[in-house]
Please model this.
Amino acid sequence: MDAAVFYGGGIGRNRGGLGMMVWVPVSAFVICWLTLAWLLRRGQRLPMDHPNARSLHETPTPRVGGLGIMAGVAGASVWLADAGLLPVMLGAFVLAALSVLDDLRGLPVALRFLAHFVAATACLLALGLTGWALVGAVLGVVWMTNLYNFMDGADGLAGGMAAIGFTALALAAWLGHAPELAAVCAAIAAAALAFLRFNFPPARVFMGDAGSIPLGFLAATLGVMGAQQAVWPWLFPLLVFSPFIVDASVTLARRGLRGEKIWRAHR
Model:
């Protein structure tokens, strides 16, 4: 939908797009901040991440940061009117809901991977991918979804990558004349910034699967969407998130060559 239509006939495309770029990330930041502040008042009643042999922390810490991030993104989404974003956002929120259940009760690995493949396939089919392009993109989305979760372990790391990475996508989308794609990327970056306020050492809250899984999914699918629309070249989102992509890929390759079980979490 044209930004001028979305904001009213008397407002031009540029002015409407600029307004959206202000209110969408501001909404995401505020909602995420307030959600996490409210959740942290619940104290020990929250799902806790208890230290173990592979942990980098020493005290039990709530793992509900993803709820704040996704609440911020959801609240900001009411400003958006681009129907093309619907399959991406729907897939992300479905995976977030499944991940909340996993954080609370624990789900079989096979079920989680199946959900990742189903969400990726459905989203990419809705975006118009077919054939080998679809197969390759599904594998890429599932890989990015899981490697983001793989890298979520140190205070400030996953949230920092989200803030930097999605800000880069937002700027590129804005320069590429895709204001609503820019706005949703800016909203994710803003929510990540609010989360970082509670996640910098010593962390008061961890992201958990409810944040890392949908963030990885969004990084991949929004990257595909932007490339499809010629907003950026295919290589651009890979370069933006290369710190996570390269680190996780090299680490897992090295563990595999040593004969270790790469699907098992480690320090």
Remarks:
- Confidence is low (pLDDT under 50) at residues 1-15.
